[in-house]
Amino acid sequence: MVNLSQLSGNGQFFGEAVAGADTSRGGASGTRAIPALSSFSAGMGRAIRIAPMAARVFLPFLVPALLGLAFFPVSARAGEEYYTSKEPSRDGTGKVYMGREISQTVSSHAISWLERRDREGEEKPSLVLEHLDLKPTDVIADIGAGSGYFSILLAPLVPEGRVIAQDIQQEMLDFVEGRKKLSATPNVETLLGTPEDTRLPEGEVDLAILVDAYHEFSHPREMMESIVKGLAPGGRVVFVEYRGEDPTVPIKPLHKMTVKQISAEMAVVGLEFVEVRDFLPIQHFLVFRKPGNTPAK
User: Fold this and answer.
1) In degrees, to the nearest 5, what angle opens at C-alpha 120 toward C-alphas 172 and 179?
2) 39: pLDDT confidence band, cut at 50, 70 and 90?
3) Looking at the whole model, is its pTM more than 0.85?
4) Which of 91, 242, 247, 286 is the most exposed place for a label (fewest CB within 10 A)?
5) Domain residues of the chain, as ranges?
């Protein structure tokens, strides 16, 4: 919150800027500085003696601005009421959502890890594809697509649909565009979002998939609300996250999630829990659904 007394210096600055102004109307050449903001808000009835010309120039802008600050203090950004803060732990940001500290993000420098050759052996992404129950016409949003590893694999499964590779890092999307050309998958399109908004087309997405990405969102509430907005009625959200309940999973704690935690965070944005399938070696496969009937295609 802005401390109004801290702004008093600005009021004096404006007064000094116009003090001594030579005007052609009124002949005043010396004026008093505008009172401190605290005095201004406490005593609106007292005259502010500045040169008439300066008054006409500054006051139409200054007074509304000061009144706005007085009656509508600057607060946290919209949506920040969902979050609290703490001393950051190792690999954490210190930002807490529904009792969970949000992890640090993986940058574009991690592309080599995302594209590692032994990923199939370690995580079985081919099994993920088999369990998605896709239709050829589906529109899929790969949220936090990173290098586009899953986007490129998904594209042939929806030949009459499309895959939206969404990320907030342009470097990642540039890499996806390169892979798209090499793999000849024209039904993959890239979409740059923000930390608070996926920018998905409203009501068009049949399936949103998030692979080891959700735990890194700096604004999970806002991001999920934008995903729900992008889903068609009956559209699904699939999370693939390392199992937080299992201490033997060799992943840093903040980069894992439990079924209980994910379910609670999805409930507050209006998604219905469908099922959890644990067919993967070290990850959960969770399915949620947006209420409504899936339109026929």
Assistant:
1) 30
2) very low
3) no
4) 247
5) 4-71, 97-289
